[in-house]
Amino acid sequence: MDRVKQQIHYWCHDTIQGNRKGQNIAAAILDTGMAPHPDFKGRILAFMDCVNGKKLLYDDSGHGTHVAGILAGDGRMSKGVLAGMAPGAGICAVKVLDKKGEGNVDHILEGLKWTGENAKRLGIRVVNISAGAKMGLDEEKESRLLEAVDRLWDMGLLVVVSAGNYGPGDGTIAVPGTSRKVITVGALKEGDELGCSGMGPTDACVVKPDLVAPGYQIISCNSVSSKSRKPYTVKSGSSMATPVVSGAAAVLLSKYPDMTNVEIKLKLWETCERIPGKLAGTGWGMLQVNKLLK
Fold it and tell me: What tens digit of pLDDT does each residue of 30-78 get?
């Protein structure tokens, strides 16, 4: 557990070197919402509630706040120690999941549509979706979800989706992580294990996840609505690994703003580290931020 936490900490501070913190890049986080945590101060660009229609920022689950902290928290409540991957990035919180972390397709589609319609105005370049449904979802609903994420990708947005936690058996990648276009992220445990992270191949024989990143026992922002009132908490799963990749991509875009989503995907493929002798289903391998940013 400590090794994984230290690795996230090292990655965060490595990305900050050279003043590359994700500045001038916005990420849309489609999740349970987001609490007004101090670590996001001054960088929340928009909030859209597709579940309850509320106007003021909130997170009745805590999941979205934790994800946002990994991607873009600045760590001020920990004196910078627990900063996220891109602590200078703007954040657009799109609530598509309820207080149980569950969602219906209509809410997710509404969030995806809102993201596409507001991407240019808000400078959204990265879309983080730490949610997904089991393979075997109603065919019509699955098709609509895949079409919606592919549409964002075709607009030039980098769409990063979790592999889900239905694994580790074959064919357990969550939808819409089954899309050929989007970047699907699995969670790596200490000891180079996937745990319950979803695995491919998809029904179309596409290898998924595309890559893996640490996602277990990760410390990040706690929702201020939680009973503990502590600024940080620990969560695990592919939901936590996904914003590690999204945040690294935001930093890369702040360094090379003209890069396309296809070029970033290729760069990830070129710089991931294969895990020898293990985890044949981890796609390109494990994210390597040092190599990615060179």
Answer: 999 999 999 999 999 999 999 999 999 999 999 999 999 999 999 999 9
User: Quick check: 217 and 189 in contact, CB under 8 A?
Assistant: no
N-terminal to C-terminal alpha carbon distance within the chain: 28
CA distances from 22 to 114, 127, 149, 194, 272 (A): 22, 14, 23, 28, 20
Residue 63 a catalytic site member: yes
The C-alpha atoms of residue 277 and residue 293 are separated, in whole angstroms, by 27
Contacts of 11 (CB under 8 A, 6+ apart): 85, 244, 248, 289
> Given 37, 63, 66, 107, which residue is catalytic?
63
Answer yes or no: pTM beyond 0.85. Answer: yes
Active-site position among 31, 39, 60, 210? 31
**179, 220, 223, 239: which one is catalytic?**
239
Let me know if 9 is a catalytic residue.
no
Q: Which helix (H) or strand (E) holds 66?
A: helix 63-72
What would you report as the CA-atom Rg of the chain, rounded to the nearest whole angstrom? 17
Q: Determine whether 37 is an active site residue.
A: no
Q: Is 281 helix (H, G, I), strand (E, B) or coil?
A: coil
- Is the peptide bond between 168 and the residue preceding it cis, with omega within 30 degrees of 0? yes
